[in-house]
Specification:
The complex is a heterodimer. Helix content of chain A is 66%, strand content 0%. By secondary structure, chain A is an all-alpha fold. In chain A, α4 crosses α5 and α8 packs antiparallel against α10. By secondary structure, chain B is mainly α. The chains are: A mainly alpha, B mainly alpha.
């Protein structure tokens, strides 16, 4: 059993369980599922700077910070006790292409050539780590939600604006992957 | 005199709080606390526990993998489509059942779901987030989980995402919505 748990879980196990987070939060305390709002709460706590968007009673939303704290802890637990040493399985087409950019290290959960402390101080690493993160934070808040808030919670509640947002997430992702990322990876 | 000023200042701040609280609800409806109950902070540990469960799912389902996200956008693997699709189906059925049976939360509160009004930010912001998602291979949830798995450099990505959120808040009134 534990050996099975240590392998990557198939989508038909992980996906439905992720979906169950939606009713679990509703039933636990009338909370709607969403993660990117935690970034807003962090701003409200640390650097509100008299900006009205960050001046609200964040203590009322503290549950969200407990939740993301739990997600981080879940990452520690999964990486410590629920992991096997096998390298990440990647589509051969993708690994062939990535090898062209010098990305051949599959020992970590993230490609070490792109996301590591030494990589941070290269132009490519800086764009991937810092610029990428900025776009995620800016975009999710502008859109009013992320993959969890819009794509899972919003679609679960049959909200068409969330479908619009989800389609735009995908379009942005396709544009980046096919048209822009090849140039970034060449840096 | 300074005392009086301070009092009026506090009152002003409180008034503004009420206003922005409403704003949190209307503009940010997907990720808000719908509960009106005032609970002590320790009650929140149940959400931390659920977060642990969710974090493990993100790692073991490989949702946090940059490679899986690349495969998704390159249409080289069904995995992520299966994850998101099945999660949405389960979520939809659950929400429909909750509505049908008018289920209450374990705190005995009626479960309330806010409608999400459309604004242009869902298009512009959505596209911007999509660009970032394909670079980092992580949406906000996986950022936290990745740091937990020991990819500590992702802490910089998270801080940068906080900075992005802050810049949005700072220039929000100048952006089309």
């Amino acid at each position: 059993m534990l050996e099975w748990l240590k392998q990557p879980w198939p989508w038909y196990i992980a996906g439905p369980l992720i979906g169950l987070t939606v009713p679990a939060l509703l039933l636990l305390g009338n909370k709607t599922f969403g993660i990117s709002s935690s970034l807003r709460h962090i701003c409200a706590i640390s650097i509100p700077a008299k900006i009205s968007y960050f001046r609200y009673d964040w203590k009322k939303e503290a549950w969200n910070l407990f939740f993301v704290g739990g997600v981080l802890l879940g990452g520690i637990i999964a990486a410590t006790w629920l992991t096997n040493a096998a390298p990440v399985q990647v589509n051969p087409q993708l690994s062939e292409e990535l090898a062209g950019y010098g990305i051949t290290d599959y020992s970590n959960i993230v490609p070490a050539g792109l996301f590591s402390w030494p990589a941070l101080f290269t132009l490519r690493g800086f764009v991937m780590i810092v610029v990428g993160g900025f776009l995620v934070g800016f975009g999710t808040r502008y859109a009013g939600g992320c993959t969890s808030g819009h794509s899972i919670m919003g679609l679960s509640n049959l909200q068409w604006p969330s479908l619009v947002a989800t389609c735009c997430f995908m379009i942005g992702g396709f544009v980046m992957t096919w048209l822009i990322l090849p140039y970034i990876l060449q840096l | 005199m300074p005392v009086k000023e301070e009092i009026s200042g506090t009152a002003l701040f409180k008034k503004e709080l009420i206003y922005t609280d409403y704003e949190v609800r209307s503009q940010n409806a997907m990720c808000v606390n719908e509960s009106t109950l005032d609970k002590p902070l320790r009650v929140n540990f149940k959400y931390a526990l659920l977060g642990v469960f969710f974090g493990i799912l993100l790692v073991k389902g490989e949702v946090i993998s940059w490679f899986r996200i690349q495969e998704m956008f390159k249409l080289q693997s069904f995995h992520m489509y299966g994850i998101i699709g099945s999660a949405v189906v389960v979520g939809m059925i659950s929400v429909a059942l909750i509505k049908k049976f008018k289920a209450k939360s374990i705190e005995k509160e009626n479960i309330h779901l806010e409608a999400k009004p459309f604004h242009k930010g869902q298009v512009f912001g959505g596209l911007i987030f999509g660009l970032g998602w394909a670079i980092t291979g992580a949406c906000p949830g996986p950022l936290y989980a990745l740091i937990g798995t020991g990819a500590t450099v992702i802490l910089i990505t998270l801080l940068s995402a906080v900075a992005g959120t802050w810049v949005y808040g700072r220039f929000r009134d100048k952006l089309p919505h």
